[in-house]
Fold each of these.
Amino acid sequence: MTSKMLEEALSSFDAVQAQLQQLDPQMIEIAGRLRRQPPQVAMTVARGSSDHAASYFAYLTMQLLGIPVASLPMSVVTLQQAPLKVSGQVAFAFSQSGQSPDLVNSLRLLRKRGALSIAMVNAESSPLEAACEFSLPLCAGTESSVAATKSFIATLSASARLIAHWKEDLELLEAGRVLPEGLREAAQQDWSVAIDALRDCQRLMVIGRGAGFAIAQEAALKFKETSAIQAEAFSSAEVRHGPMALIDEDYPLLVFAPRGAEQAGLLSLAADMRQRGARVLLAAPDDIAERDLTLSRAEHPALDPILAIQSFYVMAAGLAQARGMDPDQPRHLSKVTRTH
């Protein structure tokens, strides 16, 4: 039995391929503007899965460009009418539908106050697009399942490519050209052990760090949305500051440990939690012998989290059905969320 969620997740490589064919001229224009008028600070504005994508964007921007990035609470702009001093800075909005009034109004006001406004939005001709000076279409096409998958992956890939153009990073740009093939491979990874382990799960932690923390955040949300599991995402560094008090015998943890400076700490945490009796599902590349789930490698480590979430989505769709749920129609939720 299949689902729209699974079908759309498996079509993510088509969206990324479409971006490669269509978006480079717009990205080059935006990147040129950012280099000519470099901001000292960048802001991100988003909710839900799009906010997790914004976390990935923020991490890469700070790591590769050295520009501090802050996630802006929209209520500060729309409800409090705070006199933010943002002239000469840049605000990035991330959205699937581009319709939420608080998102649109935030970008409209930030632009009015002198910020360069850039939207990454999937739906064409949206209010968000009209509110911003620049807009990058995500090229994911219509997404029917309430659970966002291909639009999330498309946001990550567009984010990484825009940053690569901004930095003029030829290595990252070239790695992005073969990302669609990497997504195809990642979708074939066998994560069935996670379905078996989590079929009757009621709670779990999802652990990541660095750019991979955005993936942990997104995975935790999908566990809630599609499988009604009380899942919470934590940085591996934060777990030791209190949350680990919750971990007892057989407590389930999904740990994302892709390549990078953060990997050693993630592996150490996974080993420690196993010693405490936790049920650890360690997702790591195939050179990590103690892994439970295999992560594909991209041509650049910055793109590894994109392949990780691709493998996760396929598993999550199967897990929801194994739990007797419809991943396309999470209870109480709708595709377009409008907040004020």
Amino acid sequence: MSKNIYVTGIGIISAIGKNAEETLMSLRNKKSGIGKLHHIKTRHQQNLSVGEVPQTDEELKELCKAFADVIYTRTSLLGMVAVAEAFKSAAIVDVQEYKTGIVSATSVGGMGIAENFFSRYLDVNDNGDFLKNINTIDCSDSTERIADYLGIKDFLSTISTACSSSANSIMYGARLLQHGIVDRVVVGGTDSLSRFTINGFHSLKILDQQPCKPFDLNRNGLNLGEGAGFLVLETEKSLNGKNVLCKLSGYGNSNDAYHQTASSPDGAGAFLAMENAFRRSGLKAEDISYINAHGTGTEVNDLSEGLALERIFNKKLPPVSSTKSFTGHTLAAAGGIEAVLSILSIQNNIIYPNLNFKNQMPELGFSPAVNLDAYYNVKHVLSNSFGFGGNTSSLIFSKVN
């Protein structure tokens, strides 16, 4: 049953670029996408720093040449842009050539549309739009729209495990390939900003009004973001000599079941997820070249993850940084976006800087990378994604010799 899982295509859109090329350029130039909110009207608008994709919904429709007669949520459109790029990157022309599946992740779903129609529900004379649009709120709607857009019919599934969703979709896709259920699979996630999300995180009092400062002593919360990141995973069966970007060499998941929203103080769940990923990959901690940390910038998360990292690496860490200082926390899309960034790190031998870091956390013995380290020999990248409810997931991507 054991098979090598290869990444043959990547696609991404976020606050720092509408494709992989633009994203890499922003990373090289230390250009953060964190700024003020423009596309959503809310009373918190002036006090928010977010990683908003600059394109409007209409511009996204044009970008991906969406079908004119279909209702698309912003979540779906972001996913369509990223998956179209991933397909092109993987040189997929005929989707029916091999049994192809999609496992897409989201937490917001179509809330961005649905929340605009709730007030009309009780008005019997004006609830037509509500009934027409309410179905888009379902998380599976975005998966179905992306699948229809690309002609994927063999296998569809949607995962929603909060901020670990995309990482779990990648793990699930790998298992589908291992068991021969599909020949290739598109995996990742998409999420868009909405008033529902903004107000929910505002009520938790974990939003930083300034650009976030992951792993900094004076960190004050996260910046919400939006976007999508997808990979095409394949085995030798469908490669046919095509270019391979890297291997998915390890993955692991656990749940510490400590709290509905907070990580366990000692990072027990995070440690177990990383331990499982190492066990599956056959690699040791000292083999990792770079850690793309979950690193939200909240007081609890960064300490919990930091302690888990020191434990698994025996306090001898390779360079570590959080790219959420560039993109914001894109929730269910985070694992997919950061998987793409991890692969770009391997391809370009680059370690990304942890923007806005100034002061060492006294509880930890390491500090994140702050300078862009180019031409570092990046062989293996560990990417962490930790969600509400203690659902923790870790992925390891490896260079193909």
Amino acid sequence: MTFSIVALDKKMKALGVSVSTAVPAVGSVVPHVEAGVGAIATQAQTNVLYGIEGLKLLKAGLSPQAALETILQKDLAREKRQVIIIDMQGRTAAFTGKENVDWKGHIVGKDSIVAGNMLVGNHVLKAMVKTFEATEGKLSERLLKALEAGQEAGGDKRGRMSAALLVAGEQWISETRPVLDLRVDAHQDPVAELRRIYTVSTDYFQISE
């Protein structure tokens, strides 16, 4: 039901997630980020514990793969989940359960992972990876560009409704805010609306990452 990307900017020491789906309020459940620790997207039949507990395990010193396996072992409904994780070292982990609806899958890129389920096809994720790696500049812009590429490629086959962008770094995102947390909860073109909100926020808060 969703397409997303988690990514790391090693130079700026920033981590982030961008995501869109055809159900309301995706930003309240899918993206999880902690500065200096990691970024996680938990989707499909979403279980927020993958984000909450996953960040705790990363902070405790586990690798993304070890953290993911720890949570999966406790989850009887794991085949309905889709989870992607990246940490500050650039280590990654990804899981797409067998009971997710096609098209489903994930791709590990350079300092990023993209994932989706109920998509029009795998070209959605390929477009996201290609765009993220070809885009220069701050992580927030690269994440948003990747999301736009996924939507342009077809995105969620059921339609559109919500989108979100969540970024955190060791330095504050702007002079006044440590985290960039933008959400579109119910809109006919959520990715385009997210771009509008991002542009307003960038200008107003002088966002640097």
Amino acid sequence: MKAVGFYRSLPIEHEESLIDLEIEKPTPTGRDLLVQVKAVSVNPTDVKARVARKEAEATPQILGRDVAGIVAEVGSECTLFRPGDEVYYAGSNVRPGGNSEFHLVDERIVGHKPESLNFAQAAALPLTSLTSMEGLFERLGISRHPAVNQGKTILIIGAAGGVGSVATQLANLGGLTVIGTASRPETIQWAREHGATYTINHTQAIVPQLKELGFPTVDYIFSLNYPERHWDSIVEAIVPQGKICSILPLHHSAKLDTLFSKSATLAWELMFTRPMFQTPDMIEQHNLLEELTQLVDAGKVKTTLTELLEPINAANLRKAHAKIESGKTIGKIVLANF
């Protein structure tokens, strides 16, 4: 079957940084589904994984952490899906990715694709939506019920990116006052269109901008950029006993003890934790995607697809990686059809 992968890390401009391959079609066992891949999206985690393999290896690495497709076969222990089901998911970072014609994935981290979306539109959502839902509802403990959240505020740092584009929608849907950070006219507009009540510029001092809006502190902070870039502002802006969640690690230069006097909570969100460690609650990712499907089909959450490239091949994936590396993307880049 066709696939796109690499043997060692190279600059994305190099024609061998990602190459077209022919690999063996896998066979599902246990709780695995074999999915015929119809569309994939590209995430910053794909870029990080691509640049991490410094030494050439005999086996190619296949990336791709967002997939939408059709179940072709099921393992003997599968109970949630059957052949012909249209599905979407983010997969696992410890198994081959979805940049291949067929892909194996554990059914416990797969959801039924929203009927209102095509495969490309659906492929934009899983990784960023799972990150947003786990971050907001589990790590930060935010209620899904708007009445509970009335008068509460959340600062989303990096509101126009992939995760931010979904997190703003979900937080707004939950009744929070959403303050999103963005720095360019187009990203400001995008953040507001996707649920940000207010926007501020993260290239400028954050706290004075919050105070100008009438918010000397906020109840929650969802940091989608490296948190040390804004650490002093995060510490100052969080309300006493407030909660902070970061999707990226904190550099040792940031002083954690500055949160002590506020009794503030700092939580981490890595969407891959459940599949990576095969946690007993791994099926919660299936449940979250099923919830997301209902929200999408009800018109309450919309796809964050902004650019579609066809077909799925090495040349187009190199283009997508280059755009991600620029740091100026809005929403999600998706590739469809081999």
